[in-house]
Amino acid sequence: MEAYVNTEYRNSNDLFSYDDLQRLQLLLEIKPYVLTRSQYLYNIFLKRLLDIIIASLAIILLLPVFIVISFIIAFESGLPIFFRQQRVGRGGTLFNICKFRTMFVNAPKNVSTFEMRNSESYITKVGKVLRRTSLDELPQLLNVLQGKMSLIGPRPLIPKEKDMDYLRKYNGIYQLRPGITGLAQIRGRDLMEIDQKIHLDCEYLRGLSFKTDLKIFFQTFLVVFRKDDVAF
Length: 232
Known about the structure:
Blueprint: H1 18-28, H2 37-61, H3 63-77, E1 82-88, E2 94-100, H4 125-133, H5 140-146, E3 150-152, H6 162-171, E4 179-181, H7 183-187, H8 194-206, H9 210-225
Parallel strand pairs: 3-4
Antiparallel strand pairs: 1-2
Helix pairs in contact: 1-6, 2-5, 6-8
């Protein structure tokens, strides 16, 4: 039996409560997947080393882009340049994710775009371009250097996403650092239902390897350049 809970979720009214999920775990008595020795060593050493090297080089090479985007944001809508928000990281610990700010400063805090009413009215002109090209994600390279994120991995949750958070804990997903991009980003992203997302999280966890990460890394560029429906 698969470790993830393959339940159909259609809207917020259909979600299990946190207590329901806890009781479901006790009934199923399914243990979360644990990384193999080779996967663990790759995750701790080689994957982390590659994250540091690639993120460092990317920041150096993209520094002019960082500066130009910062000036444009400040000119259009003032300060701050960056948007910070609490997310759930490795081991279930919280950290502050960093992005280029794409909304006006009066936009609702700690709410995903998909939960907002009239979200388009809060997005700045440059913000629309940054989101469409995924350039708003570039500051997360700093999160990678800090060790809070990886280049490749499941996207970090907002703490209030209790149902998804519980399913990730339940399936052992928090053995991994969250990523800037991952399987969900190359296969349909935030348009997916929760059961589909946790399925992809589990697929990535079980298949963790250098080959898998390399494949996701290059496919992400193809998706962005094709301007497919990718939302981080």
